[in-house]
Amino acid sequence: MLDVSSKWRPEPDWALARLSGPGITICPVTGLTQRLVSGDVDRFLARYDLGRDVGALGLALGERYAVRVARDRLLVVGVSPAELADGWHDEGWAVTTVSAALRVVEARGEGIRDLLARGTTLDPDDPGPCAAMSFAGMMATIYGHAEAGTLRIHVDRGLASYLWEWLECQPLLGGIGEPAPR
Amino acid sequence: MQLFPCPFCGPRSESEFHFGGDAGNHRPEGFRAVTDGEWSNYLHARNNPRGAANEIWMHMTCGEVFRMERDTVHHRVARSFAPGEGDGHDGMAH
What we know:
Chain A: This is Sarcosine oxidase gamma subunit. By secondary structure, chain A is of the alpha+beta class. Chain A is built from three helices and twelve strands, in the order βββαββββββαβββα. By secondary structure, chain B is mainly beta.
């Protein structure tokens, strides 16, 4: 019987995983509360005092913020289920908790523009209002966090291992086109 | 690579989009009243124009479904607009 177990590498240890190269460091971010909110997003932002939503490569500040991922959908970070219950709200929005569905990595340093150039086709000087985009061939949500030069990337949990392997291969991070031994 | 304009996100790579067929190709109404010819035309007949084309596309990252007018010869995009925009002639069944 064909053994394909060697075809896939084990997931990295997300608590310890870290990549670095000249001008850039990448590490996972764990423990974020992530919710999808669909519907009347402007009313939702006002109701929860989240300010303006963050678009592609926009800058999110603090621990509570909202990132626009579609015309009528937000990825809300840092608002707990105790404060905002899952399900339909009569004020005009629906909430789904996706904390376990998305893995987040954070890139820091002056090399993030090079990383974006490798992973996306987005014009960094005209990124647009929506943070959902294709990155390294998969759907991702990408924005700046806390300060210029820091980038957060949310991807489906099942694709996070692929993302890490893709990052390991990048010349920017010292890769030579092949994943590093794990 | 072409850039297509998503009505919400703005210009994005063509690889982020999925073709949704000719604009205005609505599913025939009526159950038994629909003839084989009408159903076949709905399923299989395509405009396939040389020049100006009117199409439905989906932006996969944000889920926006929209109509795009483009030219199949030189690939220039004339305009794109979301459902409800475009003077009510968005080419989509609502």
